[in-house]
Amino acid sequence: MIIITGTVVIDPTKRDDAEDANRIHFFEQWRDMDTVQRHFAVP
Fold first, then answer.
1. CA distance 28 to 8
2. What pTM value is reported for the model?
3. How high is the pLDDT of residue 18?
């Protein structure tokens, strides 16, 4: 399993339902690295 975590800073006017409207936190679980690479190869 591959786990990817991160944060993205965004324009707060685009979001109104978060504790910190300037930042999105994400957590992804992937089956394997091949699956991750195919995902990021999609235009």
1. 14
2. 0.61
3. 66
